Amino acid sequence: MARMRAAKDEEAERRPSLVDDAYAAMKEEIRESRFPPGYQASEQEIALRLGMSRTPVHEAAIRLQEDGLVRILPRKGIVICALAPADVREIYDVVIAIEGRAAALLAEKPAAEREAVAAELAALTGAMAEAREVGDLAAWGHADEGFHRTLVERAGNGRMIRINQAITDQAHRARMLTLKLRRELGASVAEHERIVEAIRMGDAAMAQERAHRHRARARDELLPLLESFGLRHL
Questions:
Q1: 87-144 pLDDT tens trace
Q2: Do 44 and 7 meet the contact criterion of CB atoms below 8 Å apart?
Q3: Helical H segments across 109-234, by residue range
Q4: If DSSP codes are grouped into helix, strand and coil, which group holds residue 41?
Q5: Burial of 17: CB neighbours in 10 Å, binned 0-12, 13-18, 19+
Q6: Higher pLDDT pick, 86 / 96
Q7: Rounded Cα gap, residues 79 and 81, in angstroms
Q8: pTM (2 decimals)?
Q9: Where do the domains of the chain lie?
Q10: CB 49: neighbour CB atoms within 10 A?
Q11: Of 32, 127, 165, 171, which has fewest CB within 10 angstroms of its CB?
Q12: Which CATH number describes the domain made up of 85-228?
């Protein structure tokens, strides 16, 4: 009896961790398009592919459905949600608002905090420039994501961070799928540098305007590309 209770206690302790692991693994596969848009499989197939058991995959899928990354189809399995150009536009509407405000909040911080964040953002921008020089698009995309995630997280608004996380998981997939179509990667580096400069200066209005302009330009570059290439879903 004691052994059975101990086994149940151990299983109860491990279960949240297993679900978290399945959630993280599935999200990473979706973000990097190794589970591409429209991909459909049973929970058992996904579990086998990830080297996991079915139960944590099932519970992870419920969380991913709440994030808008998958749909659970009764008796048919799990399908990875695709992004239409209209979805991309909505994502940018949210990102523009959040990141502009985040940049302003960072610029309003005390000088020592501003400098620390600016140094972190500058390092990520430098990594983008280096990746562009050697033609490593994947590294460029990850450094770019790191810049934008850090911009919001260091602002310290918990609600903005939670909203941004749900949105950026989708935005990252669009970023990685369209990198080869985009022509102005150098412009992003220069715009990041100007955002960092405004934060260092403590100019909240300038930081907000530059962050807003940066994301708006990226949106206005990307959406016509999707249309010109006839990409109805990402």
A1: 888 888 999 999 999 999 999 999 999 999 999 999 999 999 999 999 898 899 889 9
A2: no
A3: 111-134, 137-153, 158-178, 185-201, 204-228
A4: strand
A5: exposed
A6: 96
A7: 6
A8: 0.76
A9: 2-80, 85-228
A10: 15
A11: 165
A12: 1.20.120.530
Cβ-based neighbours of 228, under 8 Å, separated by 6 or more: none
User: Residues 120-123: contacts with CB within 8 Å, 24+ apart?
Assistant: 120/150, 120/154, 121/147, 121/150, 121/151, 121/192, 121/195, 121/196, 121/199, 122/193, 122/196
Class of domain 2-80: mainly alpha
Amino acid at the residue 92: Y
The amino acid present at 46, given as its one-letter code, is: I
Q: Listing from the earlier edge strand, what are the strands of the sheet with 70-73?
A: 40-41, 77-80, 70-73
pLDDT above 70: percentage of residues in the chain: 85
Closest alpha carbon to 46 in 65, 68, 30, 67: 30
State how far the Cα of 212 lies from the Cα of 231, in Å rounded to an integer.
26
Q: What is the pLDDT of residues 9-49, one digit of tens each?
A: 444 344 568 999 999 999 888 887 788 888 999 999 999 99
In this predicted structure, what is the pLDDT of residue 193? 97
Question: Residue 83 corresponds to which tokens in the numbers above?
Answer: 């992004």
